[in-house]
Design brief:
Layout (H helix, E strand, L loop, with lengths): L2 H18 L4 E10 L4 E3 L1 E6 L2 E7 H5 L8 E12 L1 E6 L11 H7 L2 H17 L2 E6 L8 H10 L7 E4 L4 E2 L20 E2 L3 H14 L4 E4 L1 E3 L6 E3 L3 H13 L4 E5 L2 H10 L3 E4 L5 H10 L2 E3 L2 H10 L11 H15 L19 H9 L4 H15 L16 E5 L12 E6 L2 E2 L2
Parallel strand pairs: 1-5, 6-7, 7-8, 9-10, 11-14, 14-15, 15-16
Antiparallel strand pairs: 1-2, 1-3, 3-4, 5-17, 12-13, 17-18, 18-19
Helix pairs in contact: 6-7, 7-8, 8-9, 12-13
Bound molecules: zinc ion.
The site of zinc ion has 4 residues, from loops.
Amino acid sequence: MSLHQLNRIIWVILLTAHSVVAQKSYLLRPDRIFDGQEIHENWVVLVVNDKITAVGEAKSIVVATASPKPEIIDLKGCTLLPGFIEGHSHLFLHPYNETTWDDQVLKEARSLRTSRAVVHAKKTLMAGFTTVRDLGTEGAEFDDVGLKQAIQQGIIPGPRMIIATKALIATGSYAPKGFSTDVTVPQGAEEADGRDPLIRAVRNQIGKGADVIKIYADYRWGLMGEARPTFLIDEIKLMVETAQSSGRPVIAHAGSAEGMRRAILGGCETLEHGDAGTPEIFALMKEKGVALCPTLAAGDAITQYRGWKKGIEPEPERIKNKRKTFKEALDAGVTICFGGDVGVFTHGDNAREMEMMVDYGMKPLDVLRSATSVNARVFHQEQLGQIKTGFLADLVAVEGRPDVRISDVRNVKLVIKNGEIQH
Ligand SMILES: [Zn+2]
């Protein structure tokens, strides 16, 4: 058989396969669209299979629609947005006021934790969060790999997952802590130090399925239990170089100014938390193009778990300080990712972080940008985060105007992922 004949046969097979796959098409008609950047009144969106194939004023689109005939979905009173992208989740954790973090890591079977994660995934998706960057299983080994596969294969409903697997910590720096020195307790992430072990650990996590390498640039291991840097700057550079060879970014948990400085100069792409950032540190982040994922809701939740009666008692120092440093980051023009560290608080309640971002000084429209187009860009998801022709059809319709009143993101009426309506 000649190459020409072979090509011809392949074409026939492809055409046949194509014709038997039913095309699915929706024309979505909300009151307005937030396209990831701006609000547009009276626009409609055409979805064919898993893609957005047209966006704009109704007239211009209906003309272009011959075949297949789309199912019309009216979304009266609704705003249609790109599916939200949660920037910092832990699907393998549940709120610490239910079970402490230590007890989750040490006492809960991985089968139990996975069962919970399956439920968390569905709750997240149905709240309109069609993608999550899940930053570490916290002791549940590589179980996020299987969870991600189960979602991809349509076995269970859930968001697209960008996963970090185990995350990396410097030996002795992380937790659980406080046990007899004679026993070795499981850790919430993988310990590794120095040139060869770090290279091997990064590559092993990549090999098992990590999309992103998460490191802890500091942790509460100071003499007084304060956050202090962990990895040396050369170690961070080494992990970044190793991960980058495979096209993967490194991101860092960093709360202290020095931990943040090392993570920035070491080449990390986003910093998580950043509570003790200073104007100098935020200026450096801006200069190097490093984004901040502020996790405001986590600090707010933990402070309440420790006894603060929010709304009744005055704001404790930790909260006041977080407001101050978040404002400094905004003033410095640092790119702000949306990510709440959800898992510390209830999965599906991801909107809590959006509300807090507004409460701490961001405009609702900027928060919506952060949770869609900004996170997509920062997380290298080129086909997500915007309602634009050619983009993947991950969409959420909410009743009301979240660009005016952010809490309206909670009024979810419709979730579409990959062009499929989620139930
Ligand atoms: Zn976290």
